[in-house]
Design brief:
mainly alpha, 14 helices, about 60% helix, DUF7847, about 450 residues, DUF7847 domain-containing protein
């Protein structure tokens, strides 16, 4: 059965006789004449169909089915198939007949198949060229950083510059813990007043003052020493991180010389920020405290509860807003107020992101301290026979203080560079996002191709 012309498959060849064969030509003409005259005795009306034009003997036969337009789209290359984009014919499916590499007139050369072998023609697939990778002269790539890259950059700084980082953090941790152990061991060696206070159900104000004054004084001394150590560690480690981003090494002496002029300002900054947080907390608690003096207990409790919640919110907001002030003060050589204003500008618009990263850093530091404290606490309880967990005198004994001090030194040696590195990298990340600091860093690191790039577009006419 012959296919209808309108349903012939593309490229299929019709079973027509070869016009160059005389026998077929003669038979064909006789058959056509017989069809035109009809069969004797048949009354059916016969019509003659037009004979399609034959191709000359020297030209190939037209492969197009009947009723197709004379101008057809260009044929696809022979290596293309209808189910594959790789240029390789799929299994069981070869090239379609009639869709060879020959193209119609005026259609130009055949484009190369996408992804196929051979040299790539100019102008083809130019939009799919791979973007250049950002330079990475140091511990982080010079582009906006993700959360994982900030954490990894802090750890990479500890690994790449472990001598300097370990020297700074270990020295600060040892000094602060030795001072704390001496203060606790010498100042709190007499615990009789604390024991008497614990056994007295209704102590007087004088007894409270005598029992708590020594403990509060010792804790104040330990806090001051710890703050001084934190200032020195933060200043020097910030310098180390800034050099590590550029791929440059730094010694202890270089870190100390670069950070020493800013130590007093950094100390003032680390005192001012907690003071502002405390003032905000006090302002939120003030209505409840005033109401409590009037004798309305229930209303005072409600106001104190909501004031406490409001104070926590205000404290967290101020802590996040000014958390980038230390690296801004150290790296930009600014004053107290200018560094705090600079931190607020950098944090603006990214408050929630910075809060999340800082909370993650806090969780990591707390987890490290907890993991380190488990074996030291167990060893202290084992040495003291369990009395160090319940007896104040045993807890402040020299054996317990030494064992717990060793654990605190190990924890501080790890947590100090980790926390300082995360804060410094957050500061650099915010400047890269807002001020294109990556171009200046690449130029400072000597990356090829960044020598003459500007961070701002040139002025018109320049």
């Amino acid at each position: 059965m012959n296919d209808s012309p309108g349903w012939a498959a593309p490229g299929s060849s019709s079973p027509e006789p070869d016009p160059a064969d005389p026998a077929h030509a003669e038979n064909g003409s006789g058959a056509e004449a017989e069809k035109a005259q009809g069969t004797p005795g048949d009354d059916t009306e016969h019509t003659t169909s037009p004979i399609p034009p034959q191709s000359p003997p020297n030209e190939p036969a037209d492969q197009r089915p009947p009723n197709w337009a004379p101008e057809q789209p260009p044929a696809a290359p022979r290596s293309w198939t209808w189910g594959s984009q790789s240029g390789t014919p799929t299994a069981g499916q070869g090239p379609q007949p009639g869709y060879g590499p020959t193209r119609g007139r005026g259609w130009g050369p055949t484009p190369p198949p996408p992804g196929g072998p051979g040299p790539r023609q100019p102008g083809w697939h130019s939009g799919w060229a791979q973007q250049p990778q950002p330079p990475k002269p140091g511990v982080v790539p010079l582009r906006p950083l993700g959360v994982g890259e900030v954490l990894d950059g802090s750890v990479s700084t500890m690994r790449a510059h472990w001598r300097t980082v370990l020297g700074i953090s270990l020295a600060v941790a040892v000094i602060t813990e030795v001072v704390a152990a001496l203060v606790m061991g010498l100042w709190l060696n007499d615990t009789s007043e604390l024991d008497a206070l614990a056994n007295n159900d209704n102590p007087s104000l004088d007894e409270l003052n005598n029992a708590l004054s020594g403990m509060l004084s010792s804790l104040a001394v330990v806090a001051v020493v710890g703050m001084l150590g934190s200032v020195i560690a933060t200043a020097m480690l910030t310098v180390v991180v800034s050099r590590a981003v550029l791929g440059r090494s730094v010694t202890l002496g270089e870190a100390w010389r670069d950070s020493r002029p800013q130590l007093l300002r950094l100390l003032g900054l680390l005192i001012l920020i907690p003071l502002l947080v405390s003032v905000a907390m006090a302002i939120c608690l003030l209505p409840g405290l005033l109401v409590s003096f009037t004798g309305v207990g229930s209303l005072a409790i409600v106001l104190l509860f909501f004031g406490f919640l409001g104070g926590i919110v205000a404290a967290v907001w101020m802590w996040v807003r000014f958390c980038l002030a230390p690296p801004a003060l150290m790296l930009e050589k600014q004053g107290l107020i200018a560094a705090m204003r600079r931190s607020g500008k950098l944090v603006s618009g990214s408050w929630w992101r910075i809060l999340g990263i800082q909370l993650l850093a806090f969780v990591l530091v707390t987890a490290i301290s907890f993991v380190v404290s488990i074996p030291t606490t167990a060893l202290t309880a084992l040495v003291s026979g369990g009395t160090a967990l319940t007896d104040t005198a045993a807890a402040t004994g020299w054996t317990s203080l030494i064992i717990n001090g060793i654990g605190s030194v190990v924890a501080s040696t790890i947590s100090l560079p980790l926390n300082a590195g995360i804060t410094a990298l957050l500061y650099l990340d915010q400047r890269i996002r807002r001020e294109a600091l990556d171009l200046e860093l690449a130029r400072a690191a000597g990356v090829p191709g960044y020598e003459f790039r500007d961070t701002e577009p040139p002025a018109p006419g320049s």
